[in-house]
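Reopening this one. Same input as before:
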Amino acid sequence: MNFSSARQYFYQEIKQPDECIDLAKAALYIAQEEYPDLDVEEYLNALDTMAREAEERLPQERYPLRVIQSLNQYFYDDLGFAGNKKDYYDPRNSFFNEVIDRRLGIPITLSLVYLEVARRIDFPMVGIGMPGHFLIRPDLPEMEIFVDTFNGGGVMFLQDCQQRLTQIYQQPVPMQPEFFATVTHQQFLARMLTNLKDIYLRRQELEKALAAVERILLLFPSATLELRDRGLLCYNLGRFSQAASDLETYLVQAPNANDAPVIRRLLTQLGRK
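Same output, byte for byte:
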C-alpha cells in the first residue's frame, strides 16, 4: 500500500454521507500512510472478535450502566487497555492499529475502540468532544452519563464533567451545552488528525504535520486556520507557490485576523502583492 492509495481510500470513505462513514476504516486509512503494510481487514476482524468476546460477558439484563460495567471489565481488566499517561504525545497513541496492538492510547483513540465494539453489540454510543478531554456516552435519549475511556472507563455525570473542566483549565469554567454536543464522524476524524498534527509540530516533523493538515482539509475544505497552516508548512518546506496560494486565500477569508500583518509580510517575501 503506497501513501497515495491510503489517502485515496481515506478520501473515498469520508466522501459518503456522515452517518455512513466507517470510523474504524477511516482511522486505519489514516494509519496506513504511516504503516504502508497495515492490513485493514485484519484490524476490522480484531474488532469483530472483541465484540464477540464482549457479547459473551454481557449481563442478561442489559441496563446501560451494567453493559458499561461489563465492557469496562472486558477492556481494562481482561484486555489491559489503558491511557498512556507516561508518554501522551507518542504518535503511536494516535494510530488505531497501534492502539489495538499495544492496548495503549489517548482519549479519542481508546474511545474509538470502545465505540466500535459497542456498535457491534448493538449498544450504540457517541463521541462527546468536551474541551480538553474526549468522552463517550450511550446514544439514548435523556441518558446523561459519560464514559471516560482514558481513565479506565470511569462513569461521569454532568457535575463530574464540570469538575474535570475546572481541573483542566485550573479555574471554574461555565458549562455550555455545546461542550456536550455529539461529534459527527467527520469531526471525530478531524480531532484525531489535529492531535497528530500537534504531535508532529512539537517534534518538528513538518512533512508529517503537513500530511495531517491535508487530510483535515479533505474533511473540511474551507477550514480557514488549516488553510493558513498548510500555507505556513509549505513555506517552511520550500514549496513557495502552494504557500503563496494558501496564504492569499487565508487573507481573503480572514482579512482582519490577528496574524494578517505577519502573513502579508510573508507574501511580500514570496513576491506577491
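So the earlier flakiness isn't reproducible anymore. For the record, The chain has twelve helices and six strands.
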